[in-house]
Amino acid sequence: MNGRLLFSLGLLLSVILLVIGNLATLPLISLIGYGLMSLMFLIAGFTMAILRHTGALTANEKNVAWDEAPGELKAMTMVIGLGFLAAGVFVIFNYIF
Q1: Residue 93: pLDDT above 60?
Q2: What is the CA radius of gyration of the chain?
């Protein structure tokens, strides 16, 4: 299965858990949803910012070598990756602790 599809389904599942937990006032389900969301954000951020995987931003999902990648692709990869890492840390500290 495609990695982008799995990531999207994971985020969709976390949002569904959040909605069910908040509507039914079940804090454990909401906590699981927030935990899954933060995990997905941290995995995406780690993949893009730390591992420098540029394939997520190319149309054909081909991972371009970091040394051969154009500057715009490097910048987008780092900014989006750091944004995902920040979002994951924010969700952890704001909603879980």
Answers
A1: yes
A2: 15
Query: What's the whole-number mean pLDDT along residues 41-61?
Result: 78
Residue 1 has pLDDT above 70, yes or no: no
The number of CA neighbours under 13 Å toward the Cβ of 91 is 22
The closest alpha carbon to 53, from 84, 24, 89, 16, belongs to 84
The C-alpha torsion from 28 through 34 and 37 to 43, rounded to 10°, is -100
Q: Determine how many CB atoms are found less than 10 A away from the CB of residue 97.
A: 5
User: pTM to 2 decimals?
Assistant: 0.81
Q: Is 17 exposed, middle or buried (0-12, 13-18, 19+ CB in 10 A)?
A: buried
